[in-house]
UniProtKB/TrEMBL annotation:
InterPro entries: FA58C, Galactose-bd-like_sf
Name this protein carries in UniProt: F5/8 type C domain-containing protein
UniProt cross-references to SUPFAM superfamilies, sorted A to Z: Galactose-binding domain-like (SSF49785)
Gene source species: Planctopirus hydrillae
Domain F5/8 type C: 718-805
Lineage per the UniProt record: Bacteria, Pseudomonadati, Planctomycetota, Planctomycetia, Planctomycetales
Amino acid sequence: MSQKLPPAPRPRKHGLGTAPQVRRSSAPSSARKSTKTTGGNSNLLVVGLGLGGAGLLAVIVALIVLTRAAPTSSEGASLAAVDPVMNGKAGAGTSVAGMAVAVSSTPGDAIAVSDTIPGKTTIHGKTESNQSSHAVTASVVEPIDPAVDLWLSEFPAQASALRGKVQALGTGDLTAKLREPALRRELVRHEILRQFSPKELLVFLKSPSEQTFLKEFFSQTLWMEEFVGSGSFKSPVTGLLALAAIAEFDPEIRKPSLEQKIATSVALETAMSDQTPVNAVQIYRYYRDRNRQGKLHPGFVQLDIWEMRFAVAATVTFDELTWIGNRASFSPTEARSAAWQVHYLGDSPFGDSIQSAWYYMPWSERLNYTQKTVRVGGVCGSLSTTGALSAKADGIPATTMGEPGHCAFAVRPERGKWVDGNSVDGNHRTPHRNYFEANWADLFAGDAAWMHPNLREAQYLAWAAEVLPQEETNVRTQIYKQATLANPFHYGFQAKYFDLLQQQNAPIVVKSEAAQLAVTTFQRTPETSWLLIKRFCQGGTSSSDRVALQKIWLAGYEKPVENLVMQMPLDRIVEEMGKQRDQAAKPGLFGDVLQTTISNDKIFARFLDACQKMAAQDVSLKEGLLAGLAAAATSTASNSEDALKSLCRQGILLAEQTADKSAFYALSELGAKFIKPNYKTAHKPYSGVLLSEGGIPAISTTCRWDEPLEHAGILKESGGRFHTDQEANPALVVELGKQGNISGIAIVNVDGGNSARAVPFKVAVSIDGKNWQQVFKANKNEKVWQIDLTSRRPLAKYVRIEGDYPDGRKDFLHLNGVYVYGRPAQ
């Protein structure tokens, strides 16, 4: 019996804009618009029908001409309304008030300004309509360089000759010297070919047309720059094979054009995956044709190759991409909700688990991957993959990303801004597509690096350094320093510079200077600067130097940072700091962290939580944490109330867990100015003194209704409060201020409708906190439970109040006072 497929989910509205537009026709939007614009020509058809065959033929020809002309205007109208969130910065040339600015691809070259036709943009001497969907970055194809054959067949000799040229430049500032066009062409060519054996290409690309493509590609400096300078890739050979295959399919990519940008982006993404050049051709065809048909987001044509790579999908088939692209259209702000096209379904309609190979088996012969996920369902991986793919199908930058036990995705609605989709843990993210490192901060830092005006200058410096022998460490270090200073946002160049300094065991003064630059540059993305500084905190670096470097990083967050990327694994960073210190210096870490960040209200609580997690893994560090809390509390400024309250609350709970009375009362006294207790705690005292005074309470659990700042009050006449979480046996254990023979206990209940939660409960006493003797059980709700123990006078150091509920019941325990009277033991 056949199983009916679940219906595809309908477009849903959400809080991020209007509902996605479901495409109900495969006709391109531009074609639909052109139909409207030519609607007024229907009179020609009426006239033609009255003119016989010749007249009708003439009218048909006229209609064809008019219809072909229409898409130009409709495309112009479409691009005139380009959503600015995907435009980013202007393209290579921008028309302003009838003037056009032509920007050379070579940084530092003069900017030419010329009169031009309004509404047109001059780009490298070629006038293009700024309403065209085929924006270009250059217009001239460089002639084939005869030296390409030598570079492909005799790479070592050519590399050696280039090495001599670079060495002859000296060790001063190389920026200006590296602007010479012929030298640049050799440097970028070397940067590509050094990553593999050039003869590998000649093995695969044998036909005359493929050989011609190689010569053309390795002769065009700008194209090579975009290929090797638009982010990382795993296999440059695969990328070049894909590019060659696309060039065979569409010769248009051999000249500077939008088609060349799309082809290069697809080829580079193919080089990051296990896909074949054949698939790359199909994916290229998808984006080329969809753009021409007006089916991609109009901002797609504004993307540079480094960002277009995030907007093309090279790991799926043409059919999968086409199906999801035809299904729905999303704006960049809506795309983060694209995952919810998929039903969240752990078991298939046949009852098979998503973890089973049988989940999609019944539909494997009929549906492709995207069809199966949308029509059958899935869990986090299926949802997020579909979400990211839907964005890419519309030409919007996106990537899937891992989270602990979960898969999410991210979308970039504008340059420098990434938003998450289907996320559950914002602090531990590993984007599957990134610039340098698999972390959330990398997406922001990478955007900043490629948006930097000195990107090419810095890249050529780095490429020059890679021409030199590895043993010329000093010279390479100086060149990478120049690259870092030219574009400090480029994590890759900074990382290389840090590694070279560490390799040379540079003095701490030099390392500190580099660390300070990293913190200043990446202050908005702390994880990025930490990953750099961490490179110094290993190997032969002394523990004291590591501590000094850690303090430089912490100092960057002494005050709040505007637009700080809060999503970062601070718990892991603090743990790594601890591992980098020797055992004697570890306890001091907490003081360094908390004293430095106490005034930063936006992030201090996160640092404190990270310190607590580290101390929880090693009991020997808890005293160090308490000392750090005390030091931070005494050094805090009066205007940091939120940070101080957070410190006191967390510290009080920790002091209770470790039974540290001095820390408990110091922090309680410090936090007393933030509370105004007003509780009715009238009760009948018993003989002797108040043994509970000076003691310390400890609750079994805490929750959002708990107020640690008032815990000390429950042992004082003023009263206080505590609030456990909902559990089967919530409990409060009080370590008395003095061990003694108890004459009586008064327990003050809370006011209000929740007072009955406490009963039934039982009271027990103990000398060692391990062996307990029950002395009372409450079955009736009271305002105050008076427990007279005069006749028994048990000797005790601890008193425990514990919920004694029937099986299956869970509840909260919250009281306003616990007063234990008696005579102190001699």
